[in-house]
Amino acid sequence: MTERAPAPGGLALVEALINTLRVDTGEDRLAAEFGLSGAALTEAADLREALRAACLAHAGHAMSDAAHAGLNDVLAAAPLTLSVTPDGTAALRPTGDGLPARVAAAIAEAVAAGTWQRLKACAADDCRWAYYDRSPAGRGRWCTMSVCGSRAKMRTYRSRQS
After folding, report:
1. Residue 107 — φ and ψ, nearest 5°?
2. What angle is formed at CA 29 by the lines to CA 24 and CA 33, rounded to 5 degrees?
């Protein structure tokens, strides 16, 4: 949906998870892309929407209490371990192959790298696509300026003219 480069490091997983749903068409590729079914699919869909809410919060929107609590609950239950390499580098690693643990490790890595706040969701109500904001000031609002940003600016212009 966007021409932007994927998010760096583990945030690419989070971005890909959020972008399995096209808000404008309702097309949902979560089961196909992550090979999930049953309860795991339901849990992943809830995680995806809580992550989308967090990315909207990064863009200046309010995060609902339910999304906040839900995301914290999933991340708190994610099995992670701290490992140290022979050169002294420490990192959180997921124990097992579960999606919540992989997402939790990716978020922890991004927080440590200072990149978590730059993963945002498009401000357009009919889009909400996740993107990594590479703008110098970190104030990007749309997944793509040529589509969502252009539409928003045109709406603002037309409302001023009428």
Report:
1. -65, -45
2. 145
Give percent above pLDDT 90 in the chain: 65
Biggest alpha carbon–alpha carbon distance for the chain = 66
pTM, 2 dp: 0.85
Q: Which of 78-82, 95-99, 132-136 has the lowest average pLDDT?
A: 95-99
- The pLDDT assigned to 138 comes to 81
CA 42 centroid distance within chain: 17
DSSP for 48-102? HHHHHHHHHHHTTPPPPHHHHHHHHHHHHHS-EEEEE-TTS-EEEEESSS-HHHH
Q: What residues form DSSP beta bridges with 102?
A: none
How large is the average pLDDT for residues 40-67?
94
Look up residue 103 and give its amino acid: V
Quick one: tokens of 20? 């399995």
Task: Calculate helix-pair angle for 11-18, 99-113, nearest 10 degrees.
Answer: 120
Pairwise CA distance, residues 43 & 105, whole Å: 17
Give the residue from 21, 40, 58 showing the smallest Cα distance to 100. 40
The tokens of 127 are what? 């889009």
| Mean per-residue pLDDT over the chain, rounded | 88
